[in-house]
Amino acid sequence: MVKIQVVSDLHLESGFEYDAYELDPVAPYLALIGDIGNTRDPGLFNFLKRMLKQHELVFFIAGNHEPYHSSWNSTHAKLREFSDLVNKEPELGAGKFIYMNQTRYDLTNEVTILGCVLFSAIDPKYMPHESDLAWLNAQVSRIMVEEPNRKIIIFTHYCPTFDATEPKYKTSLITSGFTTDMTKEECWKCDNVKVWAFGHTHYNYDVVEEGTGKRIMANQRGYNFSKADGFDPTKTIEV
């Protein structure tokens, strides 16, 4: 059994809270699933260093806010550089940083984490979404064939099902900018997938799907001036 603390959409950039925000550890592993802050702000990396001192592993998914006032290429480069730096020369007692950008991480001999941004399919040919989707399906299919007993946890910033969006926005014309229906995809239908955690919508959700038993959850704080209802900084998943 593994236990992971899961939060997203802290938006520490909205009040420059990088140094002030406290996230008490309640599990050995922490998943930060996007929109934690801006990579142009040194404070984001100071916050991540604090989290590394509190956890054995920190999994990080970039959200759409990480590259604000910058670019995706720059954001990826900065996060890879940070990962290389802290993992190559870790301070005494610091954990390991896992930047998840189409990344598979085998947490144990029985549990695998798959992580990517996912983006959304506003245009059916939107390449970042198609790339992440193809990667997820390929990874899940491969695990099913080669390691059929392995349990899978998926972390994405973008929402994978319209069932998990705020009801009043389900028919909105802009909802596709936050959510894509993944329910017909292999990565969704596979029984090996035990948890799918996401962010981006600022709507908190935690449901176990009937039939598959898959837990679908979001634990999002929101902006410091407009916080999401139901955020729990101590929320965890166990697989």
Automatic annotation (TrEMBL):
UniProt name for this protein: Calcineurin-like phosphoesterase domain-containing protein
Cross-referenced InterPro entries: Calcineurin-like_PHP, Metallo-depent_PP-like
Pfam family, one: Metallophos
Gene Ontology MF terms in the entry: hydrolase activity
Domain (Calcineurin-like phosphoesterase) ranges: 3-203
